[in-house]
Amino acid sequence: MSKVLVSDSIDQAGIDILSQVATVDVKLGLKPAQLLEIIGEYDALMIRSSTRVTQEIIEAGTQLKIIGRAGVGVDNVDVPAATRRGIVVVNSPEGNTIAAAEHALAMILALSRHIPDANASVKRGAWDRNSFVGAEVYKKTLGVVGLGKIGSHVAAVAKTMGMKLLAYDPFISTERAEQIGCQLVELDLLFQQADYITLHIPKTPETTHLINATTLAKMKPTARIINCARGGIIDEVALAAALKAGKIGGAALDVFESEPLGESELRSLGKEVILTPHLGASTAEAQVNVAIDVAEQIRDVLLGLPARSAVNIPGLGPDVLEELKPYMQLAETLGNLVGQLAGGRVEVLNIRLQGELATNKSQPLIVAALKGLLYQALRERVNYVNANIEAKERGIRVIETRDASIRDYAGTLHLEATGTLGTHSVTGALLGEREIHLTDVDGFPINVPPSKYMLFTLHRDMPGIIGKLGSLLGSFNVNIASMQVGRKIVRGDAVMALSIDDPLPEGILDEIIKVPGIRDAYTVTL
Ligand SMILES: NC(=O)c1ccc[n+]([C@@H]2O[C@H](COP(=O)([O-])OP(=O)(O)OC[C@H]3O[C@@H](n4cnc5c(N)ncnc54)[C@H](O)[C@@H]3O)[C@@H](O)[C@H]2O)c1
Ligand SMILES: O=C(O)[C@H](O)COP(=O)(O)O
Fold first, then answer.
1. Which ligand is nearest to the Cα of residue 255, counting in written order?
2. Which of these is catalytic: 153, 224, 230, 424?
3. Adjacent-strand bridge partners of 226
4. Which Pfam family is one of this chain's hits (predicted)?
5. Cis peptide before 260, with omega less than 30 degrees from 0?
6. Which of 30, 106, 108, 359 has the smallest count of CB within 10 Å of its CB?
């Protein structure tokens, strides 16, 4: 049974899902050295933002197949290192969107009405109404930096509170911004005009210290800034200085350059500053959502199925993935088959997507085909994550063509591999949406489902050849489960596809090739 390590606090709903397929160890608060020591035992690691999954941890995780982040941000995971090792990294892109957006909105209102400090003062026994006179958000300008999932929800709710909305997001169209009721503007204009600035961007080299002494100086002295995105987008030293000097009105931060927050000037500031300990995703609802979302993906990957929200393989929505999954299995089977027929080192893989496949996303099918193709060389080391990289490193050139015309099947996939030992091709389709059928091998039409052990011969279409091959296999105690011949012209060349119950015994291929009329023979294990 697989083993999963859960090293951050995850809702029980996720643990229950993992327990269906694996032994689950929950070990919270591990020191990096402790994690390093035990990670080698585990097939999967499930985390939130507290566990740092460094390159060293990834390299020590020799059994790791998947790292599941029950949340959005994967900046605590060395994703490139995981990709190089073929480890899938998955997250839950939407499970805590509402929770994080509502936290930002709560920060806007709490900051405006001094709720944390007013509450603390009453709890201390005071009744001071004069110190906590607030400001209304109605008719004020909210500047949303990053109009993605969380930013859009914040904007939509702020709109209903009567706020005027400006947004900056270089990757969002004006139409999309207008749909949400935002005016898309340049960042400087947003800084100059906003009464509230809320950040909903990832932390990248471009966004690190986006809020610094220079940009803070562009803001209104009354402006309030909210960061429920990522620590490090704000230069905290510059922010504290601007707050102290009255150059900015207030700040509410949920995330920090270093977490847990250590010594900081921000702690010493008054009611104009609100600090929360990275609580954006901490609602009961969000924790159930992210735990289920990520545990299901870990379960699927441990069962050999693709994940729906992998951050290091082509992203596909669940609907698209559900539709493509059978075709990915077809692509992988064909890749594996053509790789074995081609033998040697493959240099070029031609992939033709026909019929309904021609209008689909091809990247997952190409990745699946490469995974199949490289299986003989790399076995379990190749997967959906690293198949592209491994193929590139081996100098395999992939050429993709599309033909939308529908022939005998709704969609067919044709792979042709050219390598050091020659060129071979296979075509396949799905019957009844799921059942894989081989419809062509090396240009000869056939119609057989693939089986674990197969034998293919290239021979002359002439009387007696099937009988001779049958007797030869019989003499080696090889049981034939099914057999089919494909030919283009009568008594021309033909291909025979046999499904056999067991692997072909050593040496028998040489005997097969000696049968008069048989020109070549290939055995494959799928
Ligand atoms: N505090 C929390 O607990 C918590 C919870 C969830 C998410 N988050 C964080 O919130 C942030 C937003 O998450 P999301 O789910 O909305 O992500 P998202 O990917 O849906 O949206 C991010 C948006 O930022 C935009 N963007 C990227 N670079 C930009 C730049 N340089 N300038 C302006 N816009 C830029 C993108 O175009 C995108 O629209 C992330 O940093 C995420 O890690 C925090
Ligand atoms: O990226 C996220 O999903 C948030 O920052 C939440 O982090 P958490 O799961 O550690 O609360």
1. 1
2. 230
3. 198, 252
4. PGDH_inter
5. yes
6. 359
